Amino acid sequence: MLFDQIGGPGNLPPTGPEGFFRYGSQVFVGEPQFDLAALDDFSLAAGARIDSVATVIAGYGAFSSYGAILGFELRIFASPQAAASGPSNAIAVRTLGPAANYTDFGTGKLVEFALADAIDLAAGSYWMTVQAVNSAPANGQIGVVISDLGDATSFQANPGGGFGIPGNLLARPVNLAYRLGGEIIPAPAALPLMLFGCLACRRRRRGRAGD
Predict the structure, then answer these.
(1) Which end of the chain is less packed: N or C, by CB atoms within 10 Å?
(2) Per-residue pLDDT for the chain (211 aa), expressed as one digit of tens each?
(3) Contact assessment for residue 141 and residue 134, using Cβ atoms and an 8 Å cutoff
């Protein structure tokens, strides 16, 4: 696991410091001015390949059905400000499609996705969002639930400006229930050492065979 702010069901509190347990993160079909991205930060100490993503979501407003959600999108940004300036500023984007299952999990529904096309990132700090693609107002709104794991720093970006947020960006003092799976990518300089180690092992085996 590369990053996990989901933890177990007990890590998802029913309310937070602002009185909410979920924050809107949605692509509003036909009304892009209202698109919201709930952003949380993660750091990689070394280059990594992301091959899966999960989040815990909850509906609100005129929400009626998880089955009516059209799909999900994963976006990774260099900063919250980049997200507020527009979705085209994303470092990486993956269209995830509809969820195979909506599993009861703490204060919401757990959705998990394997990435058909993995994302390679260098060491550094990034901001991620998973947005539900949802027809509103017909199916209300979808939010990512909060977690007690993390540094209590997140944002909501509304790049289309439909909600009138100053700078299209709003800081939130909470953690968001996101998870990224994958593996560390060996640095190029480490590859010769790995190969040398393999060759040394083979030579030792051959030497023993000749004893």
Answers:
(1) C
(2) 999 999 999 999 999 999 999 999 999 999 999 999 999 999 999 999 999 999 999 999 999 999 999 999 999 999 999 999 999 999 999 999 999 999 999 999 999 999 999 999 999 999 999 999 998 778 999 999 999 999 999 999 999 999 999 999 999 999 999 999 999 998 765 445 445 455 445 555 555 544 4
(3) yes
Quickly tell me which residue has 């996705």 as its tokens. 113
Q: How far is it, in rounded angstroms, from Cα 53 to Cα 9?
A: 17
∠147-61-6 over CA atoms, to 5°?
15
Q: What is the pTM of this model?
A: 0.88
Pick the CATH number of 3-186 from 2.60.120, 2.40.128, 1.20.144, 3.30.1490: 2.60.120
Scan for tokens 């540094």, then name that residue.
151
Q: Where in the chain are the domains?
A: 3-186
